[in-house]
Write a structure and sequence with these properties.
heterodimer, A: mainly alpha, two-stranded antiparallel sheet, 10 helices, 68% helix, 4% strand, B: mainly beta, Thrombin, subunit H, four-stranded antiparallel sheet, globular
Chain lengths: 253, 360
Amino acid sequence: MWDTFITLMITVLLFIYDFVGQNFGWAIIIFTVLVRLVTYPLTAKQMKSSKAMQELQGSKKWNDIQKKYKGDKEALAQKQMEIYKEMGISPFGSCLPLLVQFPVIIGLYQAIIRALAVTPIQLVNLSKHISDGANLIPIHSQFWWMDLSEPERLTMFGVAVPVLAILVVITSYIQTKMVTPPTQGTADAGGQGAQMTKAMSLYMPFFMGYLALTFASGLALYFIATNLATIAQYVLTGQADFKNILPKLPARS
Amino acid sequence: MKTMKKYFLILLLVLIALSLSACTGRRVAATGWSEITLKEDIAYFSYGPQVYALNVKNGAQQWVYPVEAETGIDFYAAPVFADNETQLIVASYDSNLYSINPATGRENWSFTGAENRYVAAPLVIEQGIFAPSSDNKLYGVDLNGIPLWEPFETGEPIWASPAWSESCGCIYVASMDHILYAISPETGSLLWKTEDLGGPIVSQPAVSESGLVIVSTFNNEIVALDEKSHRVEWRFHTPDWAWASPVIDGEQVYTSDLSGTFYALELASGKLLWQLQPGGSIVSAPLVQDGQIYFATDASSLVVVSTDGVVQRNLPIEGKLYASPASNGDIILLAPSEAEFFLIALNQNGTQIWGYPPAE
């Protein structure tokens, strides 16, 4: 079943590749945007759940129970569940759509790498996914200054600069900040979860940047395209909070 | 609950990272295979980042090059002898051509002129060493690695080893640009070329004594060209891409395609004599020895068939077989991929004698 799914993705990717004049870079970008559009209902659901959760966690009621049951985790969890039920919010509402998107993300990446087929065995395997695509072989992996099958570096004034990896870090940071709600309520309300969120929003872009630095630049291009698509979705639905992007300075006492 | 959600998110990110890493390794996974070169009791072959010399009788390692595997180097091309067998030439995925001393495994020289990966083995003839590259060019160097002429450029990467034609006095270079080029080894200049043959060519052409050049193409065809008239003599249609090099044996041509069908054709006319479909794709040329044909499939089998098309044996082998079988007359060597051993030796009954690397 997974193989059928990948074959479908490769077929669409190569159709776009052929349609845009055999340019694999544009094929990745267009394909990523298309996949984001197809999975938009899931993303919208996730955004809606996140927003509801964000509003709930900023509410007085929520903060009050955090304070009240500070020392009793069990009772706190029970009360939180009651509030979720009362407000009609599923605590995993924003996670489940993400979970459904997980195979799509992995499938998309596998399709990109398999379609590139820069080595003999990859080409043998690709032949099993495309019944009549000999006219597309070899797949041209050059896109601007990049070879999409190799990690990217742009030599400027004698220095090899990983431009894509830097762009991945920047767009991942903006995207993460937009998606992650700001820590609200009291310090207790934020607690361990809030610290974890903060740490993730800081480390995640660097982690993505490391992947972009190390792996084929086709992956980095995909990261950038998907980050920009997510940012665009937030902007177009009016849910982008640009104030959240800049780090907050500690308030003067 | 909130904490649980965060742990869940972290777990998800780790899963994504692991999945992506599994897909790529350090970069796009370097996956290829090497043919085996035999010289007396020594087998030379490449696997991943190293080239090996093993004793054919017992699989004992003679040397390995480089001694420590290096990141960024992979060898897909078969090692080939040069300079009265005093040099072993190996083309690497790091875009370099290496000359190794076949007795010691030490490097003699390297040629670093190519701009992209070597996938196919170079052709070594009296006039020099001719290495095809994924940068679309054919490089000609002498026995010291010094360029003979400006590289000859085709329209797409060259994954096929060039072939030498005694009667034409030329090198045939088949490119992924669908064209077969005849090149002068002395000057590197074009002597003649075919029209577009309809599909990429990734395997070495076969040249017959009667002056036919036979190529397998991804246009689902085996095409025979006349060396003198440069015209297409015959075409044989296959249901899938034809990858493997054709092998000429007397008046027959043995070839195959990725549908897993093996064909025996009449050399002069391209008429089908017999065919077999044992399962799996066939990407390597067959070995013809003592009236028997050995061909490998990626469905983990070595098929032994008589020259009139009767299957003698179908031996299950662990791993996928992309490389051609090799033999010194007594022992058959196979280089499976995705298997415990990356070189195995079978006796004539098909029983495994040894595997390399040896089991711990």
